Amino acid sequence: MGDAKLYTRVKASDILTELRNYEKKPRSGVYQKTILKKIIVNLSIGDNEVIILASDVVRILFNMGYEDLEVKNMCYLYLITYWKHCPKEAISALRFMVEDYKRNSDTSVIDACAALKTIASIQLKAYIDALTPLLEDAFNDSNASIRRTAAYCVAMIFKSNEVENPGSSPKLLQMLNDALVDDDLDVVAAALNSLGDITLNTDKLKLSTDKEHALKLTEGMASCQEWCQVSILNALLTFVPQDHKIAADLIDLILPYLQSDNSSIALNALKVIVYFSYYINNVLDVFPSLPQSISAAISNLMLRPPEVQFLAMRNVILLLLDKPALLDLDIRMFFCQYDDLLYIKDTKLEIIFLLANEGNMDLVLTELQEYAMEIDIQMVRKSIRAIGNLAVKIEPTSEKCVSVLADLLSESIPYVIEEIAIITRDILRKYPGTFDYLIDMLVDRVSLIKESDAKTSIIWILGEYSSSISKSVTLLKQFSETFVEESTETQLTLLTAIMKAHTCQPYNKELHALVEDILEVTIVDIDNPDLRERGLFYWRLLSSGLPNIIDIIKPRLPTLKNDQAALPNHMREELDLCMGSIASIYLRPVKQVFRHCKPRTLSDSPALVRQDLSNSRLSNPLYNNRRSTLYRSRSSTLSSNSGSFRSRMAFTSQRVNDLTINENNQPSPAENNSESHGLSGIMRKLSLKK
Amino acid sequence: MIAAFFIFNRKGEVLISRIFREGVRRNVSEVFRIQVISKLSDIKSPVLTLGSTSFLHIRHGPLWFVAVTRDNADASVVLEFLYNFVETLQITFLNDRNRVLTDVDVMNNFLATYEILDRIINYGYVQDWDKNTLQHTLRSGIVKGKGLKPKVSHKMKTETHKVSNAGAELIRNGTMLLSRANSTMKRKSSMLVSSSNRLNSFGNGSQQKLSLSRSKKSKISLSVHEDVNLLMSHDGAIIRAFVEGSIHADTDFTNSPICSFRLIKRKNKVVGKYRKPNNEDAAFLSDGYDNIIDSDEEEQTEEDDTEISTIGEQSENKDDYDTVEAEFNADGRISEHETSSGAKGMLKDCNFNNCVSLQDFDIEGIIRFTPVSAQFEVMKYRTDITNLPFMVYSNIASVGANKFKYVVRLKSHYSKNNIATDVSLKIPTPPNSLDAEITVDMGKAKFLAAEGCVEWKFKKAIGQRICQLTATVCTSDITTNDGTRNSWRNSKPPISMQFNMGGFSTSGYRVMYLKVEEPVLKYSTVKTVEYSSSAKSYEIRI
């Protein structure tokens, strides 16, 4: 029979009564132990009432702790958890723990370590005072486990020690520093972790490793166990190579660890290699097979559980954005499995998007088209968006992408059409006049579009290309019938679209009436100040009788450029040093995610080279530039909102900019006159109504 | 680094809570319960960051293992730790790393869980421990449990979701849950169960003492298991085909000798080009299958020849077990170097147990290790494959308003000497299917309405055979809702297939030159190598 039956919430007062009953007629120790277990269960569940039992727990510790190790461990756990709330009782237990450590330091290493850790966990002054001499003793112990535990204990008490007795801090640090040259690498790794932790939280101290030590650690890694290797790899980031050779030597030593079974070792090895590659001239000439090794490591990581896959893929994205030259990945590795988790599919899609180039476009498109016919609507939308973005990103194959979209359009599935409507806007802007057949197909299916974003997009298209779309006026009119119920975004777009259409076809009677109606509605009926102001703005504009009004309302659009860097340089450098960490999942600088953390930076050294690894070294020179074009997808959860927001901002700012630079594209005077005539006519009417 | 650690059960109740660092309040567990566990259906990422507190979680059967951090912790360390911790609990509480822990197992051993946690984590940093021997040094008593039936692939995740919906009242009752889970998981468990039987011998923790003591015979047996993954498009093009192989060693040695072997690929044969015949029914049925078989058989014999010539001295290599006696001569070494460069080039994606010398593999392509325990996994590898054991051709046509006609052909592409067992195909049917008339020329097939598929099973499948299934599926008359019809037409789940094959390595990799060196005692060793393959995710889009 196990302890599962004890897993119920028990009132602390009931436990107390049980204990008192026990005292009246003592039975076997088992009974007392069971009560203690109940206390621990309640502690686990999060029932903090058991705090009132502190004195009893300490008493049990003294009664039974010497013989029964389970009881001792339970009492320790209780005290570690609640020492803050019962300092008096905790101090009374100190004597037991110190004895426990001294008694066991020679015989039972495990118990000695446990005692030491417990003392260090309880950060009362008395405990810290008692611990310092013990630590001195522990650092000189012959057993490596005890020395290792001692190293961690220093980190545990360091912060409180600063407050309680600041004088002893240098002594503690000295002990840790001595541990750095311990014979046992386990101890060294612990000391490195410990020092790393201490320096992370204070600005005063900095951990750095010298060349000899770095080499010694790296060479010694082979004889270490896995977690020790992780610590050493992490510590290597504190070594700043002063010449290219040492960096190359270290990379050479670390390369085999990419193939480790432990995903943490593999990712940390990757991080260290990327770090040292900053200190080598032309790293790819020195290590021509580096991309293959890294890619092999990644394909190994892709076989791990989904969480690890996810982490690995986020880091692949980082590398693809930053240093695609270091990768040589097979895109098929990232094709989605039917039953992949949603977040895995998402991330895979992003990578597919980044890896796509002219060479593999056919493969990518077939695959994306497959996803676009899935049942999962989110996936469908994302893959369609990816196809559209590919069309914008890679010019030579845009035709193929668009024909795939046209193919999908012909199926007349509402959400497919909606998504295509959204991306068509970008495609039309990027390739003006090339894919007008997409407009026709969309217009035919306009009745299926329900979603606000998609509506906005199609309305924008109708406004921008109104003169070439035969039904544009009728459709705009249709949309304006439900104007009041639409979202603000759609309303604004519709207003602008109608204005644009009007400036293009000033003599269209129907439009004339439409403009009148819509301005009236926005100015008179609408409460939303943004919308009303926009309406008033147009009204004043029209009534101003300016000659070049078309340039204000419908300026020539700047062509879409897709070479904005998704991540600024300094951020990429910082992220390179955070590979495998939580910040790498969000692809955000550390400061932004964790306000209290010190960001890592590349240290300056004569060997530091900021080389351009953004071009992947494919044999076909054609792709070279394509691969480097950066990524502007909105699919990742974090960037999604800001992404679309940014694009919206871009739109508005374009308009503002064009207001000032309209001399460049003067339309013919005749057009201007007719325009202003038509417009001012409306304005006059409107003001009369008022 | 790790600031706190929690284990939750499916209902979101905390089973274990341990705080390692200041700055984390005990009630963060509430936050996780509300933000993640209660939003089971859409988990966007395994990491959730709120303010500067991050939660990293993995799921294991009904349990959630959660680590909380307050800084920019190394996520790779945390995730790897969580998986390793689960494995340690499995070995310690269940004696079997292939069974799934339940909350009862954790509750029964909560003291041991805390103790293991304290042993592994030092102030939030993970330190080394030995999964197999840890339990012998624990101070707390351990109550061994049975756990749940294993689920190996992450594919089952979706199934667990279903199970979790099945009812929270089952949670406390492990056995009932087991039976319920069984019925839901049956779909994929046929292969898994057998694979667990295969692996059972490895997980037996009580036997896992370092065999440093005297033993009568020294022996090493390697078992090479390959999980085959295939994704094939509906027109028969291979989108992705690879195997995930793993090599387990079962050793019984005096002292600790150095073992080494190489993985060498048999001469790669090209098995027929996979072209899907035209969509027309007639062409589909009359396509030159016989020719393909003939040519295959030729290749097969050819390949057998080469196999004999490569392995040379061994005569028994046609059996399921290859007994490889240690016979090394200078010639062997030399020829080995030539082949190894090729083999090394081929086998890049592999990772190794910590006891394997990575440098030796990097430089010479030799896998050299000193056994760390009696049973352990030496290495894993991944390699693309060109020769698939099974080919599936399918043709689905809609005949009449509510009828679909299925023609599915299964062709086994391996040599006649091999036999696949527990072969099953799941052929999805439209969501509103009512019934199916099925005829098969081999095996058994039936329509499973609940799962929306036709299941076609074989107890045994011999190599070089073609089997055919024809079915007419009637669907209910849903004309009003056009959407469902559309979505079925456009997106169908793939045909998925399960199989097990003993004595067959799909990738063609073989363990060669297995050698045991013991400088002091110089004993001879009994060595065996066993191969097996099974389907992990064998899917054909339709």
From TrEMBL, chain A:
<dbReference type="InterPro" id="IPR016024">
    <property type="entry name" value="ARM-type_fold"/>
</dbReference>
<keyword id="KW-0472">Membrane</keyword>
<dbReference type="GO" id="GO:0006886">
    <property type="term" value="P:intracellular protein transport"/>
</dbReference>
<comment type="similarity">
    <text>Belongs to the adaptor complexes large subunit family.</text>
</comment>
<dbReference type="InterPro" id="IPR002553">
    <property type="entry name" value="Clathrin/coatomer_adapt-like_N"/>
</dbReference>
<dbReference type="GO" id="GO:0030276">
    <property type="term" value="F:clathrin binding"/>
</dbReference>
<dbReference type="GO" id="GO:0016192">
    <property type="term" value="P:vesicle-mediated transport"/>
</dbReference>
<comment type="function">
    <text>Adaptins are components of the adaptor complexes which link clathrin to receptors in coated vesicles. Clathrin-associated protein complexes are believed to interact with the cytoplasmic tails of membrane proteins, leading to their selection and concentration.</text>
</comment>
<keyword id="KW-0653">Protein transport</keyword>
<feature type="compositionally biased region" description="Polar residues">
    <location>
        <begin position="661"/>
        <end position="677"/>
    </location>
</feature>
<dbReference type="GO" id="GO:0030117">
    <property type="term" value="C:membrane coat"/>
</dbReference>
<dbReference type="InterPro" id="IPR026739">
    <property type="entry name" value="AP_beta"/>
</dbReference>
<dbReference type="InterPro" id="IPR016342">
    <property type="entry name" value="AP_complex_bsu_1_2_4"/>
</dbReference>
<feature type="region of interest" description="Disordered">
    <location>
        <begin position="661"/>
        <end position="690"/>
    </location>
</feature>
<dbReference type="InterPro" id="IPR011989">
    <property type="entry name" value="ARM-like"/>
</dbReference>
<feature type="region of interest" description="Disordered">
    <location>
        <begin position="619"/>
        <end position="646"/>
    </location>
</feature>
<dbReference type="Pfam" id="PF01602">
    <property type="entry name" value="Adaptin_N"/>
</dbReference>
<keyword id="KW-0813">Transport</keyword>
<feature type="compositionally biased region" description="Low complexity">
    <location>
        <begin position="623"/>
        <end position="646"/>
    </location>
</feature>
<protein>
    <recommendedName>
        <fullName>AP complex subunit beta</fullName>
    </recommendedName>
</protein>
<feature type="domain" description="Clathrin/coatomer adaptor adaptin-like N-terminal">
    <location>
        <begin position="15"/>
        <end position="544"/>
    </location>
</feature>
<dbReference type="GO" id="GO:0012505">
    <property type="term" value="C:endomembrane system"/>
</dbReference>
UniProtKB/TrEMBL annotation, chain B:
<dbReference type="GO" id="GO:0030131">
    <property type="term" value="C:clathrin adaptor complex"/>
</dbReference>
<dbReference type="InterPro" id="IPR050431">
    <property type="entry name" value="Adaptor_comp_med_subunit"/>
</dbReference>
<comment type="similarity">
    <text>Belongs to the adaptor complexes medium subunit family.</text>
</comment>
<dbReference type="GO" id="GO:0016192">
    <property type="term" value="P:vesicle-mediated transport"/>
</dbReference>
<dbReference type="InterPro" id="IPR028565">
    <property type="entry name" value="MHD"/>
</dbReference>
<keyword id="KW-0472">Membrane</keyword>
<dbReference type="Pfam" id="PF00928">
    <property type="entry name" value="Adap_comp_sub"/>
</dbReference>
<dbReference type="GO" id="GO:0006886">
    <property type="term" value="P:intracellular protein transport"/>
</dbReference>
<dbReference type="GO" id="GO:0012505">
    <property type="term" value="C:endomembrane system"/>
</dbReference>
<dbReference type="InterPro" id="IPR022775">
    <property type="entry name" value="AP_mu_sigma_su"/>
</dbReference>
<feature type="region of interest" description="Disordered">
    <location>
        <begin position="296"/>
        <end position="322"/>
    </location>
</feature>
<keyword id="KW-0653">Protein transport</keyword>
<protein>
    <submittedName>
        <fullName>DEBR0S6_04214g1_1</fullName>
    </submittedName>
</protein>
<keyword id="KW-0813">Transport</keyword>
<dbReference type="InterPro" id="IPR001392">
    <property type="entry name" value="Clathrin_mu"/>
</dbReference>
<feature type="domain" description="MHD">
    <location>
        <begin position="217"/>
        <end position="541"/>
    </location>
</feature>
<dbReference type="InterPro" id="IPR011012">
    <property type="entry name" value="Longin-like_dom_sf"/>
</dbReference>
<dbReference type="InterPro" id="IPR036168">
    <property type="entry name" value="AP2_Mu_C_sf"/>
</dbReference>
<feature type="compositionally biased region" description="Acidic residues">
    <location>
        <begin position="296"/>
        <end position="307"/>
    </location>
</feature>
<dbReference type="Pfam" id="PF01217">
    <property type="entry name" value="Clat_adaptor_s"/>
</dbReference>
